[in-house]
Amino acid sequence: MYRILIIDDSPADSDELSRKLACFGLDIVTTMSLKGAKSMLEKSAYRDIVICDYKLPDGTSVELLEWLAKNKIYRDVIVVSDMADNPLAIESFRAGTKDYIQKRQTDQLLIPRLKRLIGGGFDSEYKSVVLPRSSAQFNEIQRIITRIAPTRLNVLITGEGGCGKEPLAQEIYRMSNRSDRPCMVIDSAMLPMLCPYNNKQTAYQMVEDYFAKAEHGTVILDHIHLLSFDMQTMILNILDRQRPDIRLIATTNVGDIADKVNKGEFRQGLYYTLRQTHIDIPPLRECKEDIIPLAEFFLQRYSYEFFRQIKGFDAKAKRKLSTHTWPGNIRELKHAVRFAVIEATGDVITSKDLDFDNPGTGPPPRFTLRDDGYEKAKIIAALEQAGGVRQIAAGLLGISRVTLNKKITKYEIGTTYG
Fold first, then answer.
1. Using CA atoms, how far apart are residues 235 and 91, in angstroms rounded to an integer?
2. What is this structure's pTM?
């Protein structure tokens, strides 16, 4: 059973956050210090999700993370802070936090993060992190997962960008015999940021720490094609010399990473270590029977999130969804449905609400700002589509960057988008 533990020395902030999280229907407890948190966590019979302010009267969230690791207490920890300090975020991620969120962004980032961890509202029944699909191709993948999840085999997952590799990796972990042990997710693209100045000794120690925190558990290595050759060597050396008790699940959008091995760009030993079994996820355009079920799932999700009463898609909208080639796969479908829910003027999504033109080659959706109460949601959606680049987001919205900056300030969207 889940419980939410809030650690914050500000009673006002704790109370406000408790009110916001009451929608999950879970026990919520608070404490103002690390000492109080440690006492609660030592005695807890719950599967706690810990929301911890970075700086506390008797220490920091990093000290709590280190104490949890030392005492082999496995909990999901999300660090929140008033400070938008990148080094603090990096320090927190190194220590094993699930996320680092500024307090002003709890509505946009924290609540969705908790929904993914524990469910909430419409989708609480979906205990699997893999979305509902019924195609023959994906049924075969589910059969493979069921067979290999309980084993200790390392897994290499390949597929185009946006096809759902990380959720599949998380599902293997969830179904494994190690699901009650820690799971560390390492984004290969982030490693250079976590280890500045290319200090090899620091990098080696960092990877060792990641593996130590995941002892008897699982490490998910995302985007392994972005690992530098030196980092590949370090990982292989740690695996060979120390033989940590971890299961490795690796993901890459490079179709045939064996080509990188043949070109000398990827260590052969690491490739074979990771590829003890292989799952290739087909693109969405090859699983057309999955498109409408997935679209309906996202419609339900975003109708709930944006407080819309959308009943479904009309026939033309379904036809438009089914004939699009989805070069961005599930990620593109998710964005398209979210934008349609925001833009729709009626209680049914029509083909006009689905803003993509030529299948596979059309421009990204444009989000016309109307004064209809959904401006903030549209701005956030456009910023996410633009990868946080305000100039691009302004173009999607059909407004100037100056106007966008004013609206970001007005709605207190935060400083994530620069």
1. 21
2. 0.61
